[in-house]
Amino acid sequence: MNMKSWSVWLVLLAAPVAHAVEYRTVLPAQSSIGFEFVQMGVKIPGGFKRFNTQMSFDPARPETARATIEIDLASIDAGSPEADEESAGKLWFNRGAFPQARFVSSRISALGNNRYEMRGTLTIKGKSREMVVPVRYTPGKDTARFDGSFALKRLDFGIGEGMWADVETVANEINVKFSIAATGK
Amino acid sequence: MTSVRYTSPAVILHWLIALLIFVGFPLGVYMHDLPLSPTKLQLYSYHKWIGISVLLLVGLRLVWRVTHTPPPLPADLKAWERAASHAAHGALYLLMIAVPLTGWLMSSAKGFQTVWFGVLPLPDLVGKDRALGETLEDAHEILNFVMLGLVSLHVAAALKHHFVERLPFLQRMGLGGKE
């Protein structure tokens, strides 16, 4: 083998390493968004079955990363069929007027050790709040995972108005947990 | 006449459980058909706390029952009445266990853990399973109406023996005084 063919081989072998992976294709079947609320002192898990995530993340340049998540509120599991139905109403999500919840990132900063801080705006029921969301990045062979959890106050978004504003029955704090799987381009 | 009275701990347990059942049963019937509201969620919690309290108190009663002999029934009772009395009391003990137990299991199967008085979480003995939850709900309801029938019989029999046959009956579960 002459020098020229060696160098071709080297270039081919090095190619996947030289181009850093940018994750931008989300795998919905392997991703989840769940939550947990407390009702009369009892923890009740729930989640959303349908949501659309658009993202780009290059571990070499985290400051350019972006994420937008749109959640179809009709896909809720609020713990029971009765609660699912109730959650659509005006006092809860008012789903007729606001069918989706949306998160749009504004700034992502690296904290080291594959941990990141994602700032962004969460909009539910027409109300927007700035959120700071911790994200843990787990690299994989083809698929990377982005996990995190944060607490939101449901009354900040008017989730549960009127008689449901009573936080003794349904606590104000809701824990949200997400795990997003994505592949490189 | 020898003492025909149950001991004080047994009497207190009897009336405490009676009180809880007389509150818990109508509460269960009432709350079931309410539209979803914070009040409904509160009533469900109170109902569950009452049920678990009955279950614990029945445990204490069973301890009393195996360590004590109940006072003898009046000699005037007929043999079939004694047999019916023993059968009814046995069935009431079973129901005082089975009714709260089916409620607890139903709650777990429907995905709502029971947290006694909002403080003590009870384990979910079955996982979330909608079909199982509905079966247990039916069982809970049927057992409750069997219990309603037996409690009615129990009260009617005690009153009949006491007031119609003039046997010293109600003082068996009274808190002392004249004996």
Q: What does this molecule look like?
A:
- The complex is a heterodimer of chains A (185) and B (179).
- Chain A has helices at residues 3-18, 81-87; strands spanning 23-26, 32-39, 42-48, 51-56, 66-72, 76-77, 100-112, 115-124, 127-138, 143-153, 173-184.
- By secondary structure, chain A is mainly β.
- In chain A, strands 1, 2, 3, 4, 5, 6, 7, 8, 9, 10 and 11 form an eleven-stranded antiparallel sheet that branches.
- In chain A, a hairpin with a 2-residue loop joins strand 8 and strand 9.
- The two termini of chain A are 33 Å apart.
- By secondary structure, chain B is mainly alpha-helical.
- Chain B has one domain: Fumarate Reductase Cytochrome B subunit.
- Helices cover 68% and strands 2% of the residues of chain B.
- Chain B has four helices and two strands; from the N terminus they run αααββα.
- Chain B has helices at 8-32, 38-67, 79-109, 130-164, and strands at residues 115-116, 120-121.
- A two-stranded antiparallel ribbon of chain B has the order 1-2.
- Chain B is elongated, with a radius of gyration of 18 Å.
- Chain B starts with 7 loop residues before the first helix and ends in a 15-residue tail after the last helix.
- Chain A binds chain B through residues 39-45, 79-80, 82-83, 86, 163-164, 166, 169-170, and chain B through 36-38, 41-42, 44-45, 110-115, 118-119, 121.
Characteristics of this structure?
heterodimer, A: Lipocalin, 2 helices, B: mainly alpha, Fumarate Reductase Cytochrome B subunit, 2 strands
Can I get a quick summary?
The complex is a heterodimer of chains A (185) and B (179). Chain A is mainly beta. Chain A has 2 helices and 11 strands; from the N terminus they run αββββββαβββββ.
